Amino acid sequence: MAAVGLTWAEAKERCPEGVVPACHNSLDTVTISGPVEAVRTFVEQLKSEGVFAKEVNSGGVAFHSSYMAKPARTLLKSMD
Question: CA–CA separation, 55 vs 72, rounded Å?
Fold first, then answer.
């Protein structure tokens, strides 16, 4: 995951394949998620353009991952 200084619309437009905007934090800050190397590469690209981008250490847990959509119902039932 990473925090990036893009609007939601910009993130949707600019994220490379496999990287998705995952959390709309504010008008111009979005959390992105995806495979570690893809996120890392995109973060470096944004930094080289002068755009704020910082990887977030999520402890190896994909809190904002599109991969979580599939098991979400089962997980929520288990948590109840």
Answer: 24
**Closest among 56, 69, 48, 67 to 30, alpha carbons compared:** 56
CA distances from 1 to 52, 77, 78, 79 (A): 14, 26, 25, 24
| pTM of the shown model | 0.81
pLDDT in tens, 9-48: 999 999 999 999 999 999 999 999 998 899 999 999 999 9
Q: Judging by DSSP bridges, how do beta strands 53-55 and 2-4 pair with one another?
A: antiparallel
Bridge partners (DSSP) listed for residue 55: 2
Helix %, strand %, coil % for the chain, to 5? 40, 20, 40
CB 19 within 8 A of CB 42: yes
The two structure tokens encoding residue 63? 């809190």
